[in-house]
Amino acid sequence: MIINTNLAALNSAQLLSQSSSMLSQSLGRLSSGSKIVSPADDSAGLAVSVQLVSQIGRNTAASNNVGNAISFNQTQDGYLQQVGNALNRMSELAVQAQDITKSDSDRNLYNQEYQTLAHFVGDLATKDFNGVTLFNGTNLSVTTDSDGNTFSMTGVNLSTATYTSAMNAAVDTIAHATLALTAVKTAISQLSTDRATIGANEESLTMYSNELATLNNNLSAANSQIMDVDVAQESTNYAKYNILVQTGTAMLAQANSLPQLALKLLQ
């Protein structure tokens, strides 16, 4: 029997230390909800998780950009609806002004309304969205993913000759009304094309938005597999390590008492 070196106590102390460490780790996981409390728990998994979280953040930013671009298009279309209403009324006035039973005085009244509507359309051409001009015809590049790829959003220009010809026309005479009608009809045709362009922009952007939302859901699920703790499994581990710590403590106490048996041999 050895007194100076209590191997049983040393082994018990080592096992107790390991069990205590695992118990602390299990407590950390349960309290944080994460499987990786420190990089030592899963260094490779942590590296992957960091990249996934970063990509999710960039995707969210791109999704915000796309959402704002959709709002930009919706604002454009809202204004163009009003332009359409104005052009429709202007075409009606151009036809009414060609009525041979109307006098030039009547046509001047029609022309006043026509010019008011033309001024309204011209004013809409200068509108902006958060400082960005809505109708200058410039194509805008919208960021659509975490890598900075872009979608070119086709612009609409209300200052083209197609529109200005209708706005600069008059219906104060039959001859002028005839020319105005032709110009307004051309403007209406252009308007239908421009609204279709905005619709195509919005449809494409909506698809990008849906794609980003789906991608972020998948990335979040992948990150959850790496980082999130399985509470049921970890609770079982906690109970296991808790019992091991308690039994290890008891056995260490027993091992420390073994050398005392040597005293009986000296009696």
Write up what this structure looks like.
It is a single chain. The chain is mainly α and 267 residues long. It has a domain at 43-227: f41 fragment of flagellin, N-terminal domain (Up-down Bundle), CATH 1.20.1330.10. It has helices at residues 7-32, 43-96, 104-124, 161-167, 174-227, 231-257, 262-266; strands spanning 128-129, 132-133, 140-143, 150-153. The longest helix is centred in the first third of the chain and has 54 residues, at 43-96. The protein is rod-shaped, with a radius of gyration of 39 Å. The chain starts with 6 loop residues before the first helix and ends with a helix.
CATH architectural type of the domain at 43-227? Up-down Bundle
Q: How many distinct beta strands?
A: 4
The CATH topology of the domain at 43-227 is what?
Answer: f41 fragment of flagellin, N-terminal domain
N-to-C SSE string, H for helix and E for strand = HHHEEEEHHHH
Short description:
By secondary structure, this protein is mainly alpha-helical. It is 73% helix and 4% strand.
Key terms:
267 residues; mainly alpha; f41 fragment of flagellin, N-terminal domain; two-stranded antiparallel sheet; two-stranded antiparallel ribbon; 7 helices; 4 strands; 73% helix; rod-shaped
SSE inventory with pairings:
Elements: H1 7-32, H2 43-96, H3 104-124, E1 128-129, E2 132-133, E3 140-143, E4 150-153, H4 161-167, H5 174-227, H6 231-257, H7 262-266
Antiparallel strand pairs: 1-2, 3-4
Helix pairs in contact: 1-6, 2-3, 2-5, 4-5
